[in-house]
Fold this sequence. Notes:
- The chain is α+β, with helices and mostly antiparallel strands.
- The protein has 14 helices and 28 strands.
Amino acid sequence: MDGRLRRWSGDRKTGFRVGFSGWRMSSISTQVDVLIVGYGPVGAAVACLLGKLGVRTLVIDRSADILQMPRAIALDNEALRILQMAGLREGAFQVRAIPRVRYLSPYAGEFARINSCGSLDGHPKLVTFYQPELERVLRECVGRHATVETATGVEMLGFSDLGDSVRAELKLADGTTTFVAARYLVAADGAGSMVRKAIGQDFQGRTYAEEWLIVDAERPDQALDDIEFICDPRRPTPHMPAPGQRERWEFMLHPGESRERMEEEGTVRTLLAPYGNVQDMKITRKAVYRFHARTCERFSRGRVHLVGDAAHITPPFVGQGLVAGLRDAANLSWKLAWVLRGSAGDGVLESYDTERRPHAKAMIDLARFMGHLIMPRSRIKACLVHGTVRALRVLPYFRAYFDDLRIKPKNSFREGLFAPSSRRSGSLPGSWLPQGMVRSGDGTLAPSDDVLGDRLVLLGCGADPAAHLCESSMRAWQAAGGAIVRVEPRGSEARGASFWEDLSDVLVPGAATVGRVLVVRPDKTVMHEGATSECERLVRESLALLGIPGSPTPVRQPARAP
Ligand SMILES: Cc1cc2nc3c(=O)[nH]c(=O)nc-3n(C[C@H](O)[C@H](O)[C@H](O)COP(=O)(O)OP(=O)(O)OC[C@H]3O[C@@H](n4cnc5c(N)ncnc54)[C@H](O)[C@@H]3O)c2cc1C
């Protein structure tokens, strides 16, 4: 299919024919810049990010309310950082830091462990949370943006990519239909995405044969601190604590065990019995799922972009499904905003798929690998696999690989919207800039991402880029949504109002040495870097990468070794 589910007669130039027979005028906008289909956590995150950038957005969901099913429970520091970018303050929703993830075998004892204690980029490395609360908070955040309109109980029935816009048919809560024209369609419509199917991007990959019963319960005397994977081939059971006296168990079903039977209260209580006094537990949610490890061939087609579960689904063995969706949201949103405001050519949108798809796939592959550890098929396999991993951990290299989470694919790109660099250390173009605390000349403390803001930043490390730019380059930079920020090593003498002192050593000397300049995208990916004396070139080449009219044609980046 070519992405045209349905076509309606209409004027392609004006986009929309108001008064088309068969639909009624409604209070929903009929013309927006971005239509987001799906107001789950990923759609809501995209809406927040677009709202912060002032993009005229309509977000719809066919459900009247937030889904209450037991789903995501763990988030990593990257997800929390993106939620910070989306506008959520620390403490906006309850989290519980997880110090360790332990893998337990009935035959080899604790055969693997991940040390998740501490923080990275200003956020705990691993937390548990309550998804409906996060979604509620995200929706409140969306509500603060005047340019974002939300409509629940509204289903998208079909759409048509007209080349210069997308036209969508919506079924409103009262059963009537209406049409909306948007410059871009963001499909956050979940695993069963009708948009993905319509643009011919069927999922490829694996669906697991096993089903899992997910049980959430609350008990006052909860004593668990760590996430534990009980990798018993007889009944693998991940078990984890969550905020507010909550706890989760995931029980793998045996062949022949039916969904209905497993969701019965009596069955659940029998399964929970080994974990304490079941009378003290309040079972709040239970559901049987079958897991999938699947993604599609392209995240974008024409004016349509898939995000979150619509683009990829992963078993929750590494807690990365929603996290991957949030990475999609951060990567795509600013690119849409820049194109819509004319600060970038629409070619930059191609880099969304180039950058995000390989990383999403790498996370799915990691989840599949962990699946082998968590659910060995037999006692012999369990002894072999768990024993081998335990033995390997004697070697410092392998221990660090697991324990210090080096096994987790880095959020850096091989190809995409960045310039190559010959540097070997610091933050390389295509990777995330670290975040630390910075202090202004007047003593104000702030996380560095908040200082960089939703802008394209020329970040001078112990140097002032402005002093090295001619007037016309400065104007071009500002016209492209560019700003200049200067950060100095800790203890430097205050120089002027735009001075920020790096209190954490993660920017200078961490990300770059004194005298270097980094070009940082609004999603905090480093786009370019060079010496202060090369500022003119950095600006020129960055604008070219953005495809700004009048700039030289951007050069496609060769693949970089991982
Ligand atoms: C048991 C389990 C445990 C998990 N654990 C973790 C974890 O620990 N960490 C983690 O990161 N992830 C985890 N995940 C994955 C995570 O829950 C999902 O990745 C995430 O919820 C997907 O969000 P989404 O916004 O992409 O999709 P969804 O939340 O599914 O939202 C899609 C929305 O689109 C709407 N919609 C669909 N079609 C239409 C239409 N035609 N018109 C209008 N609206 C439409 C739906 O009503 C829905 O609200 C887990 C998942 C499961 C099942």
